Amino acid sequence: MSVAASSTLTQQTGKAPRSVLFMCGMNAIRSPMAEVLAKAMLPAGTYIASAGVRPGERDPFVDVVLAEIGLTVGRHQPHTLDELEDDYFDLIVTLAPEAHHAALELTRSMAIDVVYWPTPDPTVATGTREQIVAAYRDVRNHLATLLKHRLLGQMPDKMA
Prior knowledge:
By secondary structure, the protein is an alpha/beta fold. It has a single domain, classed as Rossmann fold. Helices cover about 40% and strands about 10% of the residues. It has helices spanning about 5, 10-15, 30-40, 60-65, 95-105, 130-150; strands at about 20-25, 45-50, 90-95, 115. Strand 3, helix 5 and strand 4 (about 115) form a beta-alpha-beta unit. Keywords: Arsenical resistance. InterPro entries: Ptyr_pPase (IPR023485), Ptyr_pPase_sf (IPR036196). This is Protein-tyrosine-phosphatase. It comes from Rhizobium giardinii.
């Protein structure tokens, strides 16, 4: 499924997917952030998980920007695809190019939709602590907007 097609996923099926996997490079920032946001936004009973292509370390800035909106990653520790308990999902959302390529390879012979939501890597931000945290906030807000519009089918509050 293409990125453009993913924007109409909810409209096509009439409902959000029942199981979603978010993937990024190391399951340290983007995919766990997306997992927490999705768990807060998607209907109860939706199975949501996250994984990375390669091992990573937990990033404390994720905790900071999620706490600002009353959410937490809890005891989440980064893990790879090989460490997932379940391996069937209705939808895999990739957030980094390497994750997208891995997901396409993984699902080559499976009937699983894979969509790519290009999401910046906030670890490249430099400057003061506030400037770095702002980059993480931007990623959080970007992911929340994508979840609302592409998985929940909500229209944007205002047109850019």
